[in-house]
């Protein structure tokens, strides 16, 4: 079957986004623009998806970064498909968030690690604020200095 982490972090949000395609396009047609935000992570920068089958069936937490890379790639694909219709799609990294994600990890759920995470990671509200801000903020075309322009590589 499909690994839980791929289901929760990528397939569920991607399926929801695709299911909302018609209303998203209608909103863009009505308002002139619509924003779609996909949640990623800094870990996507260190991930690869060499095999779609392996990506979908890995059950270990090591595929977390790959699911976040998949979200970035899906954000790009949504923008490519719907951008001309006024839909702006972006991936947002909410930062290191202290949540119950760590509760089932043997190392990170230990009392010393929980204390460290509690002191160094942001509360869930901060992560939510980053995503909401990204969904409401006006987008603009990237310049060559911000990415997406000439000379990027």
What do these coordinates show?
The protein is mostly helical and 153 residues long. The chain has 2 domains: 1-93, 3-Layer(aba) Sandwich (Rossmann fold), CATH 3.40.50; 95-143, no CATH class. 49% of the residues lie in helices and 8% in strands. The protein is built from 6 helices and 2 strands, in the order H-H-E-H-H-E-H-H. A two-stranded parallel sheet has the order 1-2. It is globular.
Q: How would you briefly describe this protein structure?
A:
The chain is mainly α. The chain is 49% helix and 8% strand. The protein has a two-stranded parallel ribbon.
Q: What are the defining features of this structure?
A:
153 residues; mainly alpha; Rossmann fold; 2 domains; two-stranded parallel ribbon; globular; disordered C terminus; NAD(P)-bd_dom_sf; oxidoreductase; oxidoreductase activity; Thioester reductase (TE) domain-containing protein
- The CATH homologous superfamily of the largest domain: NAD(P)-binding Rossmann-like Domain
The H-and-E topology, N to C, reads as: HHEHHEHH
User: Which percent band covers the strand fraction?
Assistant: 5-15%
The strands making up the biggest β-sheet line up spatially as: 1-2
- Segments where pLDDT lies below 50 for 5+ residues? 143-153
What's the CATH class label of the largest domain? Alpha Beta
The global form is globular
Examine the coordinates and then state which fold CATH places here, giving the name of the CATH topology of the largest domain: Rossmann fold
Kindly report the average pLDDT value. 86
Sheet having the most strands: 2 strands, parallel
Tally of individual helices: 6
| Structural class estimated from helices and strands | mainly alpha
Tell me roughly what share of residues is in helical segments: 40-55%
Distance between the termini: 36 Å
Family: Belongs to the short-chain dehydrogenases/reductases (SDR) family.
GO molecular function, one term: oxidoreductase activity
Keywords: Oxidoreductase
Protein name: Thioester reductase (TE) domain-containing protein
């Amino acid at each position: 079957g499909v690994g839980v982490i791929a289901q929760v972090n990528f397939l569920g949000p991607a399926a929801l986004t695709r299911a909302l395609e018609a209303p998203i396009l209608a909103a863009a047609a009505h308002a002139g623009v619509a924003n779609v935000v996909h949640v990623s992570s800094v870990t996507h920068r260190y991930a690869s998806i060499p095999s779609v089958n392996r990506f979908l069936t890995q059950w270990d937490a090591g595929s977390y970064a790959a699911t976040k890379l998949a979200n970035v790639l899906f954000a790009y694909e949504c923008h490519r498909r719907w951008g001309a219709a006024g839909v702006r799609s972006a991936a947002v990294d909410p930062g290191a968030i202290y949540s119950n994600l760590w509760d089932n990890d043997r190392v990170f759920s230990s009392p010393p690690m929980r204390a460290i995470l509690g002191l160094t990671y942001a509360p869930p509200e901060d992560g939510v604020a980053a995503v909401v801000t990204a969904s409401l903020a006006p987008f603009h075309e990237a310049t060559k200095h911000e990415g997406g322009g000439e000379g990027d590589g």
